[in-house]
Please model this.
Amino acid sequence: MKSTERRLNAILNNVTVAIFLIDEKRHCVFMNKAAEELTGYSQEEARGRSLREVVHHPLLDDRPCSSGDRLTGQAFYEREKTQGEEVFLHKDGHFYSAFFTASPAAGDDGQPLGTIIEMRDLTEEKAREAALRESEDPFRNMADHAPVMMWVTDPTGYCTYLNRQWYEFTGQTPEEAKGYGWLEATHPEDRKRAEAEFTRANDLQTSFRAEYRLRHVSGTYRWAIDAASPRFGDGGDYLGYVGSVVDIDDRRKAEEQLALKEEQLRLALDVAEIGQWDVDQASGRMFWPPRVKAMFGISPDVPVTLDDFLNGVHPEDRDRTREAYSAACDPDVRALYDIEYRTVGKEDGITRWVAAKGRGLFSTQGICFRVIGTAIDITRRKRGEIRLRELNERLEHEVTHRTAERNRVWEMSRDLLAIMGFDGRLKAINPAWESTLGRNMETLLSLSFKEQVHPHDHAAGEEAMRRLLRGETVERFEDRLAHADGSWRWISWTLVPEGDVFYAVGRDVTSEKEAAWELGHAQEALRQSQKMEAMGQLTGGVAHDFNNLLTPILGSLDLLQRKGLGGEREQRLIEGALQSADRARTLVQRLLAFARRQPLQAAAVDVGKLVGGMADLLASTTGPQVRVVVEVADDLPPARADPNQLEMALLNLGVNARDAMPQGGTLRITATRDSVRSNRGALKRGHYVRLSVADTGVGMDEPTVARAIEPFFSTKGIGKGTGLGLSMAHGLAAQLGGALTISSREGVGTNIELWLPISTLVPSHDKTVSARVFTDHARGLALLVDDEEVVRASTADMLEEFGYEVQEADSGEAAMALVAQGFRPDLLVTDHLMPGMTGVELASALRAQFPELPVLVVSGFAEFEGVAPALPRLTKPFRSAELEECLAALTTNGWPNSEMNA
Model:
């Protein structure tokens, strides 16, 4: 019996599950070693003690809980097998999670004898689960903020995850994109190919890279690169793919433009008898035109490789040519490949001389992926040089002739020639120093070389001197030398040590440096122009969406206010909401102004009268500390402008000037006539009215001036401005055919000039129409067409309030179908840009049937391309009063047939 008990104990102590034997009094009678490790109590300590004294529960509300409050206690009360997961307290005070099974034990007579409890420690498992969650969260966060589209699939190819960039780019919903929905966003012509490439890679579990066109949220298709790699679990199980999609549409267009320019360059090189060469470092492929192949004695149609090039170089020149090429490819050296060598014709055996120059192109990781350059056949020149060298060798014996030749080269060379000691003193210089630096030779020789060098170049000069002391030749070392007129001349040196002196040959490269700087400046200006154009496109699209969103909001709030619904508090809340909506509308107008897409009502404007009328408003806006001075030329002609937008721009500039003068100052507004004789950047040749707004404020530095017209850029601090004032004024001037210029100096002030084209028309005064007369006589059937349901519902409420019976349609085609069924409208109110038939096309079709039909075009888009300027139109969002005013003018003035196709 005891041997059986020992074997049983041995078995229980070797299992990894903690086992407790509890008698009918709930006292521990046995614990195996796993239970001792789990609880921290030895079997001797636990024997005879209650279970709750060994397996501790955390306190609930600062009090111990009874066994019956826990799942482990239910086995005692219910006499049933119980299992679950709980948190327990170890003897040393730390918590641990465990999964337990509590099974009541009964005797042969069915009476309870106790309970058997098994526990499994879940601490490591919980830690792994937490670690997994923590590892997934950063991935999802990183993926959602990545600048590219990212996706994940399961082993069957089913798409289980797409990041935020995918939905923003394609406009798909998660339901649409789930599974194989990504194929729906692929161009129909590319869909089968993309699916086949993905399926093949998935079957082989290999990486893939595919290019196809992807539908953008705008409805257009853009080229993209889809690259992915398979992922595997710890055990090597295939889990599916993780990949990314990058928009390369702009890059493809740029590559096409680059290919065109390269072809133009090749033609130019052909005309100049210069051979161009291009080496792909990754593949070893070479581009050699027939001219270069001829230099190596190779037929035009024979393909070449890098080995053909190296093998074609004369054996005596091969090593130094290979070294020069390697230095050009070395990311640590990046030397200019500039070398002359001989070639031995592969097919004709003829020896030729070639002068080659080139540079390596390096990736951002420092890897050389291409080497490009030019090659010129200099055989004729080299033959002349060889003949000259032979002549010089014969003349070596004639000291007089040799000295005369040396002196002639010294005197006539346009390069700076010098002999210099290692103490930094010039020992001898040629006359080219005088012509290059504008100083006589005595002065130059009296100064140490360091005294003539720009201070910023001293460190580089000291490093060159150290290399010379080590016996190295220094080539293409550049520094700046002082000219007599106070300027600095860039000199490119070749320095050769010889004994206790070194010889220097310098070439003036100032013109090349200036040309390179001008090229970089022009490229930066182009990048800035492209950035502003892209920002204009973005803001224009955003403003349209806001217009559609604001229309039902503004209309509904306006209707609630006019009906006087609710008490004083409700009306106050409605008024506050209306003010916020109006501010949002103003913000959208400013965005459209910057994007040059606001619907301008351009007319001949008397700028002097407009500025004079705003003088009092500007004075009250800027405050008593700012003195407002208005100066208008007597002969000022009318300008082409939108008076309302111009007033808003002038007010914004006045507020900016006030904020720039916190201690007060003078705001001077000047209007003069001016002409531009030649294009000056954005300001084109022509005649203008120049409206100047100058202040005596803090001014701006050059970086701030460069960014001043960017939308949302502001120096006023958070909450003190939208950053759209200058951008709106800039967009207004540009849209009118003029420009905005800024001149500013820190501590002096800023002058903003609006250049407005002169108008050939005479300023006219607007005639107002009584909206009340319209409301009193409004009646009949109104046909309302808009593809936005909420906008249509809001507008319909306004028309019904005016007395119209409204018939709605969600498209031009639906409206035409209603008319075909016999509907005869007395008024047409239509959105402009809709899927299918546009508002103007609908208006033209209905006017062909009903010539006297009044029409009003309403649009959230700022563009009215193809629409007559005098066509009655209303821009979203709008209030009831604005709609009423437009309809009043429409019923009074009508719509002339002559403007239908203007």
